[in-house]
Amino acid sequence: MTSKTKIELLNDCFNELRINGITTQPESEDIRLGLERLEDFMSELTFSLGYVFEAIPLPNSYSGIPRYANFAIASNMALRLAPAYGKAPESLIRQASAAMSALQNKVCRPRRV
């Protein structure tokens, strides 16, 4: 199975924002901003998920990330975009933090001594 496209990840992100009280529909400018922030966010991770970076991110490009990482990436992206809508929902902060911790535990195995 192939990975989700970047727009599918952003749609998941906007769904998380709707669940947390932001009801506006994303416009083309929101999508452009989301794609740029997604590229930035993925470059800041201290571990690799196989994300496909692009100089100019395209919505229909495959992200390259594994299925198990989708929720963590979408919820953390929602957390990053929430301030643009004037919100920082507490439940989203807890949810995004827990999802990223679970992802790090799965990806970052401790070294054997």
Architecture overview:
This protein has helices at 6-19, 28-44, 70-81, 90-107. It is mostly helical and 113 residues long. Helix 1 (6-19) crosses helix 3 (70-81) and helix 3 (70-81) packs antiparallel against helix 4 (90-107). The protein has 4 helices and no strands. The mean pLDDT is 88. Helix content is 54%, strand content 0%. The termini are far apart. The longest helix is centred in the last third of the chain and has 18 residues, at 90-107. The radius of gyration is 14 Å and the shape is globular.
Short key terms for the protein model shown above:
113 residues, mainly alpha
What is the fold's blueprint, element by element?
Layout: H1 6-19, H2 28-44, H3 70-81, H4 90-107
Q: What is the N-to-C order of secondary-structure elements (H for helix, E for strand)?
A: HHHH
Rounded Rg: 14 Å
The tally of strands reads: 0
Q: What does the overall shape look like?
A: globular
Number of helices: 4
Summarize the structure.
This protein is mainly alpha-helical. 54% of the residues lie in helices and 0% in strands.
